[in-house]
Amino acid sequence: MLLTNNVGSPDTYKVFVKPGKTYLIKLVNAVMDNIMFFKIAGHNLTVVGTDGAYTKPMTTDYVAISPGQTIDVLLETNQPPSHYYMAARIYASGGEFVTTPATAIIEYVGNHYTPPPSPFLPSFPEYNDSAASVDFTDQLRSLANDVDVPKIVDKTLFYTLSVNQLPCLRSSCLGATRLLASVNNVSLLLPKTDILQAYYRGIIGVYDSDFPDFPPSSFNYTQGVKAKEQSGPGFGTAVRVLAYNTTVEVVFQGTNLGGGVEHPMHLHGYSFYVVGSGLGNYDRVRGPATYNLVDPPLMENIAVPRNGWTAIRFRANNPGVWYMHCHFERHVSWGMGMVFIVKDGEGPHQKMLPPPPDMPPC
């Protein structure tokens, strides 16, 4: 069931508004496995922020929002007073999903009009309209110009994102294979001792420091289909260690393994600039030529398009152990994640903080 502010039918959530006003609506996608389209019938919205950072005002009649992402929009109540549905519906480029929207009601206050028998329902992009999702995200821009995005990069990392198959030999298996997920063909195994504690306390043997900067092999990522026995990932608990203040570019490359789907990628401990994206295979010559290094959006969660790529940049100036993963619950539970360890700097305020004294034991 899809809910709006934890309310579903028959107790529909209502927002009462006055005509001629402007309201700030803060959206968060708390759905575990789907990007969502959001609309308010008869009204445009002005996007002014995402993931806690201001954006240039962008007028639109719909929003595409990933799991874990936040988007701030302004609603102008400039339509004839009535009752209007605001609604969220699943966007999914592949598979079968329930497409009945979650709804709430925008209700203009006053008794000088006759409400309709049923509120007006917005018309959505098609549930599998990839262009609508990509186009919305591509229009986001930081509020300021000449933002502090790294212009010179110390480390460039190329990470493929895949849904893999592996033979399933258990009697409980419904088929001959089971699904896994990976970054650079490494499916993350979570250790019994957490990586943060192991790093801070110098515990040996919990993780390896050899997470690959590039995939083990190159192929036509977005159209080629590797044989099942070749598309199975390796398993590992590996991290990528970064020196303090390293400037980093990560290029996420979606692959067609598992049919190809979007991957909303999230990095703990950092906001990052989304400097470029495109469909198909990333080209290391033509791709950077399209980068926006003037006003790219500052985000914490970015949907890598289906069978496409996205490039982000950040400065590694927050020492610690930081998890990066797909925000689809099924993908992260299948192993689509990795860990950055950012080492301490030399200054007194460039050190990893110790655990709080009242931290409960595991």
Helix content: under 10%
Radius of gyration: 22 Å
Question: Which overall shape is indicated by the principal axes computed on the Cα atoms?
Answer: globular
* CATH fold-type name of the largest domain: Immunoglobulin-like
Family: Belongs to the multicopper oxidase family.
GO molecular function, one term: copper ion binding
Pfam families: Cu-oxidase, Cu-oxidase_2
Subcellular location: Secreted
Question: What do you see in this structure?
Answer:
It is found in: Secreted. Its cofactor is Cu cation. It comes from Salvia miltiorrhiza. Residues 10-110, 211-345 form the Plastocyanin-like domain. One of its GO terms (cellular component) is extracellular region. By secondary structure, the chain is mainly β. It has two domains: 13-138, Immunoglobulin-like; 155-342, Immunoglobulin-like, CATH 2.60.40.420. It is built from four helices and 22 strands. Strands 11-10-15-20-17-18 form a six-stranded mixed beta sheet. The two termini are 33 Å apart. The mean pLDDT is 92.
